[in-house]
């Protein structure tokens, strides 16, 4: 991607800039066509130091030279007030307060943290799925005390949720609602951040448990795949009717998630099995076609970080695989393989997603790109 | 285990003695209280050489000194005619003919190979589950041409099937038939033998496919968990009614298996979800109790290689794990953890089994022990 | 090993009992023929809790049932005053003060920590090498203020130092002093304790640096392989002449160590190259014979935890290997292979040592066994 | 790199195109500015099939679309006669005959195989070191029977040799000849090709032996770092004096190599220690400066695949590392770190090289680029 010269860049700030997700934001944004890194925020331990000194750089590409000498700021809104967009890679233990303060200061926050994902007025957006949920922002602003003009928070999903909702969205658009869903994950260690998983726990091993992860998948999937609906009885917010996320209420969606950590650096592999509401269900062939044809709004509207192919479907029986396929399209799409009938539900397949790209930083960035295109970010 | 002196040892031969399973047989049998290694058989490439020269020893315990100088024989019945028991770790491409010839030569063959698993007169036995299937042997002998007096073949199951049928057997005995079953495996590289999986395919990777494995799990599980029934219309074999395996016919069992290879040396991890026929289903607490209380025939009748505890149930949320738990009881039992409700089926849990012990050689050995106890081996 | 009944067990206390080394002490001592675990000490965070609750058990064998309900004590001498032996697996940041206090309280401390290794009156003992350095203890006690009757500290070496000094000791005894030594280590992650090395730092990776390790190897090797000598000019300690460690002064030993961390769970592999003082140097064949014949004092005097074979020499060109050979003799000996001429120095070979057994807890235990045999522990 | 339009592309053929090195050639050459893939050769098993069918693609970037439908040819010169350059990734068991036949057919062969590396008339070239050895080609052609006009063979070095000779070359140019050299390698599994190292041999393990590798390093290093000299007594080849490789004869170079395989996918790590002829030796600081300033002919003359920085010197104490640094400059340069004094020799440091790029295919390509620039390829 080349920086485009026909409009001034949008200045961005990065919260949690020294962390794993923050480093990924810097890597991606340093070559972004629209956004220019303006401020880096981190804990008071890092504040005041040049970024190169404050960070323990863990990306496999070198640190962009433009940020090396930037002095890290405390995560307080004052230093970020000229930023058109704030990206947050903050840890959950501090993200709630800081992101809230940034929103109150009329800043547009795109967050990877989990703190606001369940807020009824905050959209939880996987950018290849439900960008239309951005519409809830006006309500979020109107209900804020005091009401906001420009500030808001948008969250993106857990890295494992992101992987399977993309193909599921493609299937629901084509074949109608899914009724039941079983997902078994094999998640990469990078999903736990740094230092994250101790090596003694994972080399030559599988850990069949990730704290809170199964519940997140079961809950987030419903918010993302569901729509929005008028609250009953109707309540007005200004002149609009108050909206709520319907949590896939039109078809109660039963979800069972089982999460495992495996010795893979990057790339979440997920075994998915689904039962459709409609009968008969689509054939594996029809499912493959629908996945390949899926063209989400981020592509249609030209978000520069959206992948050319949202879902790459493999015909080889043993693909996708994390090491072989995670880097495809810089990790901005997902890969699907082994689409076949499920003897218990209807259809089963595997999904691979780059948990640090589409599963984290890339999602926030595409969300922000779409918000710019739609004028939500001004 | 100490060799017992109150009866003469039963001499055993090992087919495929230089292979991975053969090496495991040697390791286990060299300290067995009943069995004494008498002949080692391998391919003509190895025949005539001292075992220590012929083998590429890959066990993590040293080669037992008693076998080092044994001269490897061709896999022909003549050299094995004094063996009371034959253990076969042969590869599938040669096991069919060789095991058939050994049976025809009135030898008792306990095989890890897949070739005879689907034979309607050959029992497929997981020793902590369905030892009673040994009863089909008299029919196997009577129908052989010419009829056999002592020769027969007993097979044990695929290493991944073995893992989950043990807890499922415990559950069916306590709570009645299972109706639906979803299993997602994360299988160790040792399951593929040696050289097996190339390291470039599996380090920092997951391969979501193992050729033929899912079909084996779906088929074998039904044969193992099912019973035997009179063939209709009745046909006599001698004075007995011809029996057939009913393949869990009393409750058609829907099974969906998804198999993955992970970078683990030993220990298959399986995520299992089941739906019971009965309603309401048992609670997780009741399931845990049933698993802990499970006491299969191999224990009741005193097979020396049977584990003290068939199923070890973990209370910690993140156990069992391959590296931590596979060596428990020398891998002769299985470990279960994370027993909890499944939002789509009824109950889900994880199982860990040592694929080279209870998943392979240990199974054959317990099967043979039970056959000795029951007088099937004479 | 069976507990021997002909004398009362020696009660032992374990400091740092919840840590990695502490867990190993418990595992080994729970089946020790002489020692009986009496008190477990850990940080104030754990004190007062049953051991099973306080610990995050990371051994691959189950927690011995005898310690599960033992209430963890603070690391203060009062609770340990009846212990004949104290084993310390404390971290270096607290070991200095605590071990000093225990010594002052007349307790016999065998420590894995590095704090006292360079103390001129504290022996640094690799039990298959320099048990005779225990003789310095009387001087340590006499110089203490106030002088001690029973209290002392004995340290054992860094896990990587331990590996190579064992074969080097065998070579020096047979062929005279070594003049130059190059060691390149490939060290297991367990050497860094738990949580230790983050998995993101080591999967599919090598880290060519371990803080402080190269200096430790270069310094400790001289203290261990060197002897003791009268201080000049003579000073008396009581009626004895003050002794000092001569640091291999008779032949100034040049040592160059390069340390690397590799993705191996247990077992340090070391590439060693040596130049002897004598010329011509011994041949590879002579070196192999000397290594195989090596019989250190711990064996001669019957320390129960000493290995039967101190140094196992492999003839196969590709052995030893960590996964295949680390468990040999429960990790109490070392394995050597690839003994051959070095075109730059004289002889080169590889050494494998189990860094958590002979490299840590087993060393302390043999040191204590020898101290019991010699009457140093009373 | 963009294909340049100001001259017609040079057509190239690739021998062993389905193998690991062949795939890497295809990946690199499909975007090369000068070379255009014209013919793909492989064994008769693959010949006649479309490349996409014949190959088991193992690169982490997708197969270039241009080669998918190319029909694979037998490795016979006829099909390659229009190729200006032949790249060979053939296995050693067939490379000798095939490459010889291609040379005899007046083709210019750049080979990764070891077969001709020791031929006294074939240059063994690491392109960031000794491109001037190409001068021996005219002699190779003149001595061939019959003499050749265009055909020749150029080899590049073993992947582990390549890594350390680059910094050593920089040091010799600046500080004069090296006298002694100790190298200890930790080599990636990809160095063994595919299927290569069985996963059971390397997960959680180190193998301290690679067949033939140590001897290769010790021999190849001398040929590469040495010069060429007139044969004594002088013999004429045409009008020139016969040349021979002097094998570093001006300073007999003692080399001791120890080779280990580690569980790393790509990237050989090497611990190097050197003694210079000159005294006093350069300081670590001077060594770092010389390495950073090194500018080999491939850069000076503008080979398009040469790295911008031949040797990247790291200041961080724990770098380079394979996973973090191997992809730098697409693996065309090498990384050096931990430059420090060696207590036994003079200076020690670590080197990291991408064994499939500069250690294999990239070397051949730069060699060919330079041959084009020098008019050796016509």
Automatic annotation (TrEMBL), chains A, B, C, D:
One of the GO BP terms on file: methionine biosynthetic process
SUPFAM superfamilies in UniProt: Glyceraldehyde-3-phosphate dehydrogenase-like, C-terminal domain, NAD(P)-binding Rossmann-fold domains
Membrane-spanning segments: none
Entry annotated with the keyword Chloroplast: no
Keywords assigned by UniProt, alphabetized: Amino-acid biosynthesis, Methionine biosynthesis, NADP, Oxidoreductase, Threonine biosynthesis
UniProt-listed CDD domains: ASADH_C_arch_fung_like, ScASADH_like_N
Catalytic activity: L-aspartate 4-semialdehyde + phosphate + NADP(+) = 4-phospho-L-aspartate + NADPH + H(+)
InterPro entries xref list: ASADH-related, Asp_semi-ald_DH_pep-lack, NAD(P)-bd_dom_sf, Semialdehyde_DH_NAD-bd, Semialdhyde_DH_dimer_dom
SMART domains xref list: Semialdhyde_dh
Domain Semialdehyde dehydrogenase NAD-binding: 11-137
GO molecular function: aspartate-semialdehyde dehydrogenase activity; NAD binding; NADP binding; protein dimerization activity
Enzyme class: oxidoreductase
Pfam (any one): Semialdhyde_dhC
Enzyme Commission designation: 1.2.1.11
Summary of the function given for this chain in its UniProt record: Catalyzes the NADPH-dependent formation of L-aspartate 4-semialdehyde (L-ASA) by the reductive dephosphorylation of 4-phospho-L-aspartate. Mediates the second step in the biosynthesis of amino acids that derive from aspartate (the aspartate family of amino acids), including methioinine and threonine, the latter of which is a precursor to isoleucine.
Family (UniProt): Belongs to the aspartate-semialdehyde dehydrogenase family.
Identification of the protein by name: Aspartate-semialdehyde dehydrogenase
Organism name: Mycena alexandri
């Amino acid at each position: 991607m080349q920086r485009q010269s026909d409009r001034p860049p949008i200045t961005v700030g990065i919260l949690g800039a020294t962390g794993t997700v923050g480093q990924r934001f810097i890597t991606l944004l340093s070559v972004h066509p629209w956004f220019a890194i303006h401020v880096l925020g981190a804990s008071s331990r890092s504040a005041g130091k040049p970024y190169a000194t404050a960070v323990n750089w863990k990306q496999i590409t070198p640190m962009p030279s433009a940020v090396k000498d930037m002095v890290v700021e405390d995560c307080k809104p004052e230093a970020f007030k000229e930023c058109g967009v704030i990206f947050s890679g903050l840890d959950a233990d501090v993200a709630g307060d800081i992101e809230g303060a940034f929103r109150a200061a009329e800043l547009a926050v795109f967050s990877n943290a989990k703190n606001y994902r369940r807020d009824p007025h905050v959209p939880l957006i996987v950018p290849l799925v439900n960008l239309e949920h951005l519409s809830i922002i006006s309500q979020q602003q109107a209900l804020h005390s005091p009401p906001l003009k420009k500030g808001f928070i948008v969250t993106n999903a857990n890295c494992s949720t992101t992987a399977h909702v993309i193909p599921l969205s493609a299937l629901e658009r084509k074949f109608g609602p899914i009724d039941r869903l079983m997902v078994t994950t094999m998640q990469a260690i990078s999903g736990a951040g740094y230092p994250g998983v101790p090596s003694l726990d994972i080399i030559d091993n599988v850990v069949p448990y990730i704290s809170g992860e199964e519940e997140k998948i079961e809950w987030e999937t419903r918010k993302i795949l569901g729509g929005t609906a008028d609250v009953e009885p109707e309540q007005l917010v200004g002149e609009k009717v108050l909206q709520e996320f319907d949590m896939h209420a039109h078809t109660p969606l039963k979800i069972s998630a089982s999460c495992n950590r495996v010795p893979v650096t990057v790339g979440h592999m997920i075994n998915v099995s689904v039962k459709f509401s409609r009968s008969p269900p689509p054939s594996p062939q029809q499912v493959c076609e629908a996945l390949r044809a899926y063209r989400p709004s981020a592509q249609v509207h030209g978000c520069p970080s959206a992948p050319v192919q949202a879902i790459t479907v493999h015909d080889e029986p043993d693909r996708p695989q994390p090491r072989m396929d995670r880097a495809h399209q810089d990790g901005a799409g997902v890969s699907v393989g082994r689409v076949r009938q499920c003897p218990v539900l209807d259809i089963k397949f595997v999904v691979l997603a780059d948990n640090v790209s589409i599963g984290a930083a890339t999602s926030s960035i595409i969300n922000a790109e779409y918000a710019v295109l739609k004028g939500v970010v001004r």
